Amino acid sequence: MNVEPTEALQDAIEIETSPAPSHSVIWLHGLGADGNDFVPIVQQLALPDFGIRFIFPHAPMMPVTINGGFVMRAWYDILNASLTPGQEDKPKPEDEPGMRGSENVIRQFLDKEVARGIPASRIILAGFSQGGAMALHTGLRYPHKLAGIMALSAYLPLASKLSQERDPENQHTSIFMAHGSIDNVVPMSLATKSQAHLGQLGYNVEWHDYPMMHEVCREELDDIGNWMTKVLC
Questions:
Q1: Which amino acids are annotated catalytic?
Q2: Is residue 7 part of a domain?
Q3: Residue 166 falls within a domain, yes or no?
Q4: Most CB atoms within 10 A, among 89, 91, 204, 205?
Q5: Cα(167)–Cα(175) distance, rounded to whole angstroms?
Q6: Alpha-carbon distance values, 149 to 81, 119, 135, 144 (Å)
Q7: What are residue 210's DSSP bridge partners?
């Protein structure tokens, strides 16, 4: 398996597990990280021996309000501390323009894979934390059926607008959500509320939780590998 990152294309890192890949995984990083963050994961997933192109985009640089306006890679601005424990039920102003802008960028990555010969039905849109939120936001609105949508340590943004904006093509797409029970960045209660909301809208959500903080653990990687194998094969 070749897991050496190729030269960045359109602000992303690409890894192909074999020549002429037949499937793609677009994996979005979290706040303040970049596309390199999950590159080592490829070797740890124990996926079947067929060609997969992993794409790890870099989010744009922008000032982040919650971090005092410090400029970092982010898919959208975090406007206040309402994602911290004890404040989950308070109003959560969201950076809708930033989310819409990133949705357009992520759609371009999806469309590019289709143009390269990978059917949307063989593409997984995945992400961690902010990236997982954008995977849910974008994937459920995408007008072509995806193989799966994965959101790790994340939540559903702009939840109240999903029922009007969702695309029926991904109504029955498998969704994998996983979270740490002691997550100190995105409280698990936000994720479970997102899971419940998706369930009310009729989505198929495979849920996992682990005794960890805002991170990824070995057991989770095993579950991710099993799920990816199921939806890609």
A1: 129, 183, 214
A2: no
A3: yes
A4: 205
A5: 15
A6: 27, 15, 7, 13
A7: 180
Is 54 a domain residue?
A: yes
Q: Number of folded domains in the chain?
A: 1
pTM: 0.92
Tokens of 117: 């010969």
* pLDDT (tens place) for every residue of the chain, 233 residues total: 334 444 344 589 999 998 889 999 999 999 999 999 999 999 899 888 789 999 999 999 999 998 999 999 999 999 875 554 445 555 468 999 999 999 999 999 999 999 999 999 999 999 999 999 999 999 999 999 999 999 999 999 999 999 999 999 999 999 999 999 999 999 999 999 999 999 999 999 999 999 999 999 999 999 999 999 999 98
CATH number at residue 74: 3.40.50.1820
- Determine the Cα–Cα distance for residues 141 and 14; give it in Å rounded to an integer: 24
**Domain that residue 168 falls in:** 12-232
